[in-house]
Amino acid sequence: MKDYIEERAIGIANYIIENNATVRQTAKAYGVSKSTVHKDVTERLMQVNPALASEARKVLDLNKSERHIRGGLATKEKYLHQQGNLV
Average pLDDT in the 15-31 region? Predict the structure, then answer.
């Protein structure tokens, strides 16, 4: 694996842990795709730093378990915002 990929994987994991960030937020911050973020954390980082990969995985698993709640809140906010424009 190339050095810059290892460095990116470590940086991505640290960003996720420090900011409690989602895959989408991390991808946007690093200018890469969601699949790249996921692959860096789940596969590449395990080869470089398994402990860091485990910590990042915990954050991602928590975010995944809460995503249905965030989606519902976003939908609620969307419709409340639309009603405000109609009045």
Answer: 95
Position 29 pLDDT exceeds 60: yes
Tally of CB atoms within 10 A around 11? 14
Give pLDDT, residue 54.
93
Q: Which residues contact 75 (CB under 8 A, 6 or more apart)?
A: none
Using DSSP's 3-state secondary structure scheme, residue 22 falls into: coil
CB < 8 Å & 24+ apart, contacts of 46-55 = 47/1, 48/1, 48/6, 48/9, 48/10, 49/10, 49/13, 52/10, 52/13, 52/14, 52/17, 53/13, 55/13, 55/17
User: Whole-prediction pTM value?
Assistant: 0.77
Q: How far apart are CA 53 and CA 43, in angstroms?
A: 9
